[in-house]
Amino acid sequence: MQPSIFSKLKALQERYEEVQTLLSKVDVVAEQDWFRALSREYAQLTDLSRYFLLWRKVQGDLETAAMMENDPEMREMAQEEFQLAKAMSKELEKQLQLLLLPKDPDDERACFLEVRAGTGGDEAAIFAGDLFRMYSRYSETRRWRVEMISANEGEHGGYKEVIAKVSGEGAYGQLKFESGGHRVQRVPETESQGRIHSSTCTVVVLPEVPEAEMPDMSQSVLKIDTFRSSGAGGQHVNTTDSAIRITHLPTGIVVECQDERSQHKNKAKAMSVLTARIRAAERAQRQQEESSTRRILLGSGDRSDRNRTYNFPQSRVTDHRINLTLYRLEEVMAGKLEILIQPILQEYQANQLIALSSEQE
Predict the structure, then answer these.
(1) Alpha-helical segments (H) within 107-249
(2) Are residues 204 and 310 in the same domain?
(3) What's the pTM value of the predicted model, to 2 decimals?
(4) What is the pLDDT of residues 221-256, one digit of tens each?
């Protein structure tokens, strides 16, 4: 282990012990904001502390095994124990490096999932519906809650645009690399000649902004319109102006919500989506300004990027960012999305580790 990494781990271990002591103090418990902040820090440092203490114990085992090799009667057993301890030490160092990687504070938050039909007309809208079902099924396997915000249905099925909120532990962290372009290759239901067509959809995943971090947007920068909901009918849907359209005048960002019968609830949902979009736009601008010093590891996540191709005739799905091809398309569309998400996350972590090692040299 590099001395700089060891020093950092030792300092974090000492901080873990300090936080542990602070959390037992009565005056800290009385200050709820401070107590919550320390509790979060304690939770973040727990695994790192546990692995670091275990790593130090293994170093002791290595030293003991090395000393035992001087004894002819113990040499064979000592060499075996040395190799086992060495392998464990290597694995623990890998885990510790992963725990040292900078964490995106948004990763544990809920997120907004937006799927839009691109080129391809009715087939693009149908595929947008297929993608949304894929994400919904994946969310079910993770026990996340999917709450519809708004939906603009296609004439022959699917969606021209659908926006939903996905709530659950780690939702944004697991889905954030889904942002970008998704292409489908298949024979459309509306195709009479049996020819394969290519259509596209775009996916955008935005982290939910906690209420405490929401910017104070005065009415002067917002234009709020009400209108009657469109949809499958019903007494309230077509007779009350419950739907909400909010325009953020400085940026021109527009959000609509008509899923709820209550105008108040629709406004609250629309404001949440609007805040997430404004924050994402600010982040994109900041990243663009810092592009000279940033390394784009897995694509920018812009809507123009082509993340994946879903080829139905060959039952093939390809993620172009990491050159991964699987012939398990049916499983993916049924919600087994982890077989694509995990390799992307592993590639991202591997690149982060390379960057971390470069910084330490």
Answers:
(1) 121-141, 171-175
(2) yes
(3) 0.68
(4) 788 888 776 654 444 444 566 788 888 888 888 888
